[in-house]
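Trying the structure run again after the queue cleared.
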Amino acid sequence: MKKLLFCCTILITAFFEVSLLGYFTIFNVKPDLLLILVVMAGASFDLRTSIGLAFLAGLCRDIAGVGSFGLYTFLFSIWGFLVHRLSRQASFDNPLVFVAGVYLVNFLQNIILRLSLMHSSDSIRLGIFLRLLFIQSFYTAAVSFFVLIAIERIRRYRSQRKI
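Done. C-alpha cells:
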C-alpha cells in the first residue's frame, strides 16, 4: 500500500512539475521535486523498491523533458541506489541530514547534467552555470525541508484520527 501511494505521488508530482511549478521559479530556477522523492524513496524503502521508484521518477522526467531520453532515468536510478546504501550507514531521520543529502544529490546531478551538455551546442557560461548550480541546489533543499514538515504534520494528523 505504501509503495502504491508513493508511485501515485511520483506521478502527481511529475504532472505538477510540468504544469504548475513554473509559477514558483526563482531566478528562472525550479526546485526538483522528483529528486526529493528519489532521495526519500532511497532512505525509506528496500533496495529493489527504491531503485524501481527512482526509475519511475526518472522515466516521468524523461517523458516530460526535451533532453536526451534516458539520462534522468539512469541518474535517478543511481541516486536511488546510492542514497539507499548511504541510508544504511547514516540515518536520514534527522531533517537536517535529509536536507543536506538532497542538496548534495542535487548539486552532483546538476554538475553531471551540465558536463553532459558540454558535448552539445547548449553550453552556458561558467558564471551563470555556478550561479544556477548553487541556487537550484539550495532551492531544492529548502523545499525538501518544507516537504518533510508537511509529511510530519500529515502523519501526526493521521495518528490522532486513529485514536
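Residues 2-162 form a domain with the Arp2/3 complex 21 kDa subunit ARPC3 fold (CATH 1.10.1760). Worth checking whether this holds up in the mutant runs.
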